[in-house]
Amino acid sequence: MSGSVKSGLFGAPEHIAAGRGLAEFRSGRPLVMRSGNEQIAVLPVDGMSDESLAAFRLLCAPERPYLLVTARRACALGLDCGAPTGLTIDDLNSAAEIFSLAADAQPTQALDVIAPGPIGEPAIELAKLAQRLPALLACAIRADAVKACDPPLIVVDGAAIAPFRRATIESLTLASEASIPLNGGLAARFVVFRDGIGGTPIAVILGNPDFAQPVPVRLHSACLTGDVFGSRRCDCGDQLRLALAELEQHGGGIILYLEQEGRGLGLANKMRAYQLQDTGLDTLDANTVLGFNDDERDYGIAVRMLRMLGCTRVRLLTNNPAKLDGLAQAGIEVSGRMPLHGPINSDNRRYLTAKATRAGHQLDHLLGAVGPAADSQSSHEP
Length: 382
Description:
By secondary structure, the chain is α/β, with parallel strands linked by helices. The N and C termini lie far apart (50 Å). The protein has a seven-stranded mixed sheet. Strands 8-9-10-12-11-13-14 form a seven-stranded mixed sheet, sandwiched between helices. The protein is globular and about 65 Å long. The chain contains 17 helices and 14 strands.
């Protein structure tokens, strides 16, 4: 078999390179992001040790690495926030000091800005996809330095990142399913999907929904603290249990249990947002300080799951109008909304207020009961 025939045998080469780059970021290793004749070496700050920092500086020599942050992080630092921004770092900065510059509400280091160029954006998007903090050490790197590494650094085309994310959704397949009886005698079928980068979202089909009619559907982003441990900082677990009761009452429906912890930030970043909220920030401002958008979720995976199940008409169980818009724009007919109003307590009332007043969640009837802000909030709306 000739080399030309073997090329692309297991997928588009640029998508394979992006997938390998994703694995490198998840493992805390650097890669090279390329755009035309420009290429930079990038290393996630999240998980970086002093040893890996020293190795990266050696890789970059004689160039000096800089810190690449998102436009949102730059804005939180009081800088021009029109695009990803480069911040100079001192040769003596430790890994902890660089992390502080990337994630603390009020870093102590002086801020000197350099322009990273457009190649920084796809590098940050890949870091988000790896659920790392969207902050990277970066430096220009020569081709001979890339080849000199053993093993050679993975080289990723920046233009491939957005198509790679879309291809990941299209790669979804049905992995397995089983019938599982739930408390109260409710019959359920758990359908496990698998995508090309290891994600395993789940559809829980309750009862016997009539797919010829609009099906009651709950898009539920996983929340370990609320769903499993009953956290009072959010209403996630309450909404999940309310959804189960509503679907049972309506004769069945579907819960899509999506791997979108912390509004798409990931569990580690969600905990970082909690720490920032403990200092007085609300859920949206905490995300901004960490460099994230208010909501990082993409409902394309939910649309793909529904279509694979043969469900194209839904009644959505949610307080979040963005979910209705996301499904409708993707071609799923949304025939109505069913609210899920969980209990208010002293630990989640500031969170509920932020959702209603800043994120547009339809909780107006609760605003009078929410009252003054409490001391804690949540970074996650399922």
